[in-house]
Design brief:
Blueprint (H helix, E strand, L loop, with lengths): L1 H16 L25 H15 L3 H13 L32 H14 L6 H15 L19 H7 L7 H9 L5 H8 L6 E3 L4 H5 L13 H8 L11 E3 L11 H7 L6 H8 L2 H12 L1 H16 L22
Antiparallel strand pairs: 1-2
């Protein structure tokens, strides 16, 4: 048994270190890191500067900006639909169940867009801003760097239904979460690696309360949650009230992007059910959790690969969509 596990881990390590074998390594001929080199050469510098200022002011903002990219890409692809406010026929995704009173960082995106419009009018898309801000936030928190493929354009609409249905929820079953990833072209390895983004950021009491009091539906707490950790959480997450109370997703190093998230899962101190099930519900994800817990560099390498892959989910390119001048509304409004 031990030999088979070692062999499995060696294969996973080899996969994590293997080069990307695509004709277009960044996901297609229309997305590539040099997209703005001539049309807006200071684009990345401008984004990085404003993100750095925002994260210096509030460390939590790194996780918030990274999350915006995730929640954008899982709905209609990476097209900045999450940034649109409600107006006319558009019902904003900001009001969906996963996003309401939760997603944040819109003012930082507004500041970036304003600076880019001054430097290079009508050139850099809001979708690319989200992708760049996610990378810069990760790096500022101590995580890996990756080249961001660019050339996305912005959507002409939003989908609150897609936001409600497509974004993985904290209480979803393992199979439901995996299915949501597969529907976006992402696989089991991507699921585990991208879940590692929960090494930074915070979550509300309402997102994990059932684990403390009624995970089974019969009034019992989640047996995969460490009892001492659960008791600590109950002090600020009661049976009723305190819905918006915030808790670090990674209590060991809440503002540092590292692999302690995976070590937490192995000690039954993952905060969300959707996190802990990666170690308790599936042998393949359990082995990946153990691999990343032991090898931070492997986690970083795979996270970078997986987030580039996620950033390539059905982008609008060429003449599709538009380049919004204000990320919150369509140009013709």
């Amino acid at each position: 048994m031990a030999l088979s596990i070692c062999s499995f881990l060696m294969v996973l390590a080899a996969l994590a270190l293997s080069p990307l074998c695509f004709a277009f390594p960044y996901g297609g001929p229309f997305l590539y890191p040099q997209f703005y080199d001539h049309s807006c050469p200071k684009a990345q510098e401008i984004v990085k500067s404003i993100v750095a200022k925002a994260v210096a002011k509030e460390a939590r903002m790194a996780a918030s900006l990274l999350r915006l990219h995730f929640h954008d890409c899982f709905v209609k692809g990476c097209d900045a639909s999450i940034l649109l406010d409600s107006s006319g026929t558009i019902v904003s995704e900001k009001g969906s169940n996963p996003n309401r009173n939760s997603v944040r960082g819109f003012e930082v995106i507004d500041e970036i867009k304003s600076a880019l419009e001054k430097a290079c009018p009508h050139t850099v898309s809001c979708a690319d801003i989200l992708a760049l801000a996610a990378r810069d936030s990760t790096v500022l928190a101590g995580g890996p760097y990756w080249d961001v493929p660019m050339g996305r354009r912005d959507s002409l609409g939003a989908s609150i239904q897609g936001s409600n249905n497509n974004i993985p929820a904290p209480n979803n079953t393992f199979q439901t979460i995996l299915t949501k990833f597969k529907l976006k072209g992402l696989d089991l390895v991507d699921l585990v690696a991208l879940s590692g983004s929960h090494t930074i950021g915070q979550s509300r009491c309402t997102s994990f309360r059932q684990r403390l009091y009624n995970q089974t539906g019969k009034g019992f707490p989640d047996f995969t949650l460490d009892p001492a950790y659960a008791a600590h959480l109950r002090t600020r997450c009661p049976r009723s009230g305190g819905d918006q109370n915030l808790f670090p997703l990674d209590f060991v190093s809440p503002t540092k992007f590292d692999n302690s998230y995976f070590r937490n899962l192995m000690t039954k101190t993952g905060l969300l059910s959707s996190d802990e099930i990666l170690f308790t519900n599936n042998p393949a994800t359990m082995h990946l959790v153990a691999l990343y817990a032991a090898h931070n560099e492997l986690f970083f390498q795979q996270f970078a690969r997986s987030i580039v892959k996620m950033g390539n989910i059905t982008p609008l390119t060429g003449n599709k969509g538009e380049i919004r001048m204000n990320c919150r509304k369509l140009n013709h409004q």
